[in-house]
Design a protein that fits this description.
The chain starts with a helix and ends with a strand. The chain folds into two domains: 2-116; 125-155, no CATH class. The chain has helices at residues 2-12, 15-115, 117-124; strands at residues 127-133, 139-145, 151-153. A hairpin with a 5-residue loop joins strand 1 and strand 2. The relative contact order is 0.04. Helices cover 77% and strands 11% of the residues. By secondary structure, the chain is mainly α. The chain has a three-stranded antiparallel β-sheet, with no helix packed on it.
Length: 155
């Protein structure tokens, strides 16, 4: 098409005007091709922009979902912590009560033992042996206790 226009210009117009028109047509054609490339590039960029907007909206939806889950998890963690504290308190109270019961039981047993006449007689009838050295350097063992005042000598 450009060639046909160039031939018509050469036939009907003076040579100087024809050259100027030919140059302008060449520039216009190259600009037309450049414009066509720019339009295609613009369409591709517009499509890419639309895809990016879709991804952004999708990510925003996921973000709000994650935020909601996070709040739920934080709430559950607080509840679990509260329950753990309550259980620890209950366990400590039960251990204290059990220790108190054991102490009372031991106290009763000790009270019964010390009130027992058999225990009193056994503890009052104990014997102990003390080494004693006489003037000659020989050792003697003296038995002490409630039932005996005798001395046993070692040779």
């Amino acid at each position: 098409m450009l060639e046909e226009i160039n031939k018509i210009i050469e036939k009907n117009l003076p040579q100087e005007v024809g050259k100027v028109l030919q140059e302008r047509l060449t520039v216009a054609e190259s600009e037309s091709l450049e414009l066509k490339d720019l339009k295609e590039n613009f369409k591709a960029q517009t499509k890419n922009y639309g895809e990016c907007l879709e991804r952004l909206e999708n990510l925003r939806g996921k973000e709000s979902e994650i935020t909601a889950r996070e709040k739920n998890v934080v709430t559950q963690e607080k509840e679990l912590s509260k329950r753990e504290n309550e259980l620890a308190k209950t366990l400590a109270e039960l251990k204290a009560a059990e220790a108190e019961k054991r102490a009372e039981g031991i106290k009763e047993i000790v009270g019964l033992v010390f009130k027992s006449p058999v225990y009193r007689r056994q503890t009052s009838d104990y014997k102990s042996y003390t080494p004693i050295y006489n003037n000659n350097g020989q050792s003697e063992i003296k038995e002490t206790g409630t039932n005996s005042n005798e001395t046993i000598s070692e040779e």
